[in-house]
Amino acid sequence: MIRHLEFKSRARTDMIDITSAVQEQVRSAGVRNGVCHLFVLHTTAGITINEGADPAVQRDMVSFLDRLVPIDPYFTHAEGNSDAHIKSTLTGTSLTIFIVEGKLLLGNWQSVYLCEFDGPRHRRVALKVVNDP
Fold first, then answer.
1. Which family, according to the similarity comment (predicted)?
2. Residue 107 within a domain
3. Is residue 36 part of a domain?
4. Residue 88 backbone zone (phi > 0: left; psi -120 to 50: alpha; other: beta)
5. Is residue 7 situated within a structural domain?
6. Structural domain tally of the chain?
7. What CATH number is given to the structural domain containing 104?
8. What residue numbers bound the domain in which 33 lies?
9. How far apart are CA 61 and CA 58, in angstroms?
10. How confident is the model over 78-123, as pLDDT tens digits?
């Protein structure tokens, strides 16, 4: 069964820690061992795993991506958000995380982030939890 998580970003570029929401879906699915697939249903948002302990990491990532792919008046996409499409491609739109003993298998400092590149907006992430046979 595919479930959907919904989030509201706060800024044009934002990194939203969705780890606890994903873990809650794993818990409610009752899967002890398996995988959790995540897919962002948007072309101007992405998903990644990175450090969750120090918010400076998210600020540095946002700052770097904004410098790497700035809003450019020479982009030809009529909506003016080509930079967001490129950033989404760079971060990717899907993740698979192992589930071990009912918990997402993440390192000590790792968290799951929904990456907003064209906000603020409402965003949806599709989630599928699969039990090991």
1. Belongs to the UPF0047 family.
2. yes
3. yes
4. alpha
5. no
6. 1
7. 2.60.120.460
8. 17-131
9. 5
10. 788 999 999 999 999 999 999 999 999 999 999 999 999 999 999 9
